[in-house]
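Take our chain:
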Amino acid sequence: MRYPAARLVTSRLSLRPWSPDDVSVLARVLEESRAALARWTPWVLDESESAEALRGQLARFASHFTSGVEWRYAIFLQSQPARLLGGCGLFPRVGPGALEIGYWLATSATGNGFATEAAAALDDEAFRLDGVERLEIRCDPGNVASIRVPQRLGYQARSRIVHEVPGEGRPGGDVVVWERHREASRTTPEDAEAPR
């Protein structure tokens, strides 16, 4: 299987694999966004208590990207290349022929459509890969901002399940599973409802 591209560019964003050199900027964003991340995506904060642990986590992300375990990207603003907006990724943990799209944003980056734009770039890239027929986005049913992303991109809500915390195999709460198949047309972020 061909792996996703190492750099994805949209009209406003630049997505690239994480590097251990991102430790300082990521630590600042995690601290700024701690309350929201702890509520909706607590696994983003895992191992982020020290710079050394965070650097190790970023090294694993980089290694997993090149070896094809999973593909995590840092999201930067093109007009301000040093401004980290959040992270996103493609994860082969939802069955054969399928990938899961995940995303999170810094608190200061929310409300601008950045998550939708990043998810659309991942959607496009995923369906360029051989053998990928289905994409999933999983959202906490209470996270209205996150749910707008799959809605804007034309995904369909298929089920509600108890989500396992990534990498831990323990329950993490209910999530709604949104799906899109290769043959389904996708709304583009430009066509979607404006950010609120």
Summary: The longest helix spans residues 51-67. DSSP finds five helices and eight strands in the chain.
